[in-house]
Amino acid sequence: MAETQQKEMMCAPRAQLEWGFGGRRKLRDGALLIALFLGGIGAGQFVVSTWIFNYPLSAVIGMIFVAVGKSAAHLAYLGRPARFFRLFLKPKTSWISRGLIAMIVLIVAGVAYLAPYLTPWVGMTWTAWTMTDTIGQMFLYVAVVAAFIVMVYDGFVLNSCKSISSWHTMLLPVMFFTYAIAGGVAMSALTTMFDSGSTLSTENLVVLDGFLLGAMFALVIFYVMNLYASDMTGKESLHRLLMSKTAIFFIGLALIAGLAVPLALTLVHQAGIQGTIATTLLAISALLELAGDLSVRHSILKAGLHAPVI
Amino acid sequence: MVIDLKRCTGCFGCVVACKAEHHTPPKVFWAKVLRNESGKYPNSTRQPIPVICMHCKEPECEKVCPTGATVKREDGIVVVDHEKCVGCRYCVVACPYGARYFTDKWKDYFTGKDEPSSKYAEYSKKKWMEDSDRGVVTKCTFCVERVEKGLLPACALACPAEARTFGDLDDPDSEVSKLIKKKHGFRLKEELGTDPSVYYLPAR
After folding, report:
1. ipTM for this model
2. Do A262 and A209 form a contact (C-beta atoms < 8 A)?
3. CA-based nearest residue in chain A for residue B103
4. CATH 3.30.70.20 corresponds to the domain B2-201
């Protein structure tokens, strides 16, 4: 700790110690990372399940991730959780306010859209609207737009920190969006494995997943190249990503386990494997992708360095 | 404020004065002195760079704050309302100058525990809890309570080398404005467009 403090007193790139595991409050600061991760995959799962696959059970799980997981993790992170309502007060200038308002809109519109599907679970019948009529579709449109904002806003939150070169790039919202959609596909794949009544075609999931994995791989490479071409602080961040303890998460988990292995498994799956082996491969691929998503967010937070003041 | 780097000796008097004035807990430095090392031996130099909140005219911290806890007063001083802050720390990561601190717990300087070990520590804890509180973000206030009484900020008053000059930047006849003009004052990270209100006079 004394060494950290000494480094903070030098005119040198300074690590951000507020967001992510290992911050000033060690584990508790990691709640923010969990919130961003759950928000991303939850919103992604909702969009993938409703917009692409018409799979309401998966959409419900995505909604639980956002409404319960993300909200609880945010509250655990805050210094003064009882004042949480204040977070919604400045959408005009603050990306946190914008993102959290979108999260509330997603929860309200999403639950309203899913109400006809959910109410039979509690022994009631919903007659006010159906999921396919105009009102139901209106709720769906609103929820999907809000989910898109939830998927990208954390990228904009980081992008707005001008003195952190590795965060101040428009690649982050795009990366977080792609990871969120891929996380949604992975979660939908996992859901369908445990749902005997699912009619979702795993072939479609695998094709979409393969495309997203390719896009994520390209984006991560662009991100690394962007850091290599940036200023001294950006290069120092890149050094952290590739050569420090963070490299275990970035190279080991995010790049190899989270991208390369699932991509290989997708190709093997496409080769025509059927039955239990195919299902197992899909499950492993989905779990690795989720671990990669968490790791890439963790690495980006940990590599955040403030440029020296002079 | 204008800080003359030629005069600053890096004695940390400003840091101590700030701590004595505001009773900030360990690891919280509203005023700090960074060391800038440049060149290569035998032509290397070490220059102390005193850093406080820059009280920017376009503060990033105010823009990103989701609660409206960070506000810019009419006199240009940027303050945090600790009754409104939720401790999300967006401002801490957005501030390019590292001027903001989040405090989760008050800790005694000597024992590192939550309980004060002396009467002075007890007083410090009481003052800190009254003025700043826990679970929120704090920062240099330009000693607003002193400035309102017509006094100098503690750091400017304590500086034995008189490296700090406090005054009105909007008044072209003020000492600070004259110093900036005469000695080619510059600001830190001007390229970010935050328009800081703390100027530095070059060391040579």
Report:
1. 0.92
2. yes
3. A79
4. yes
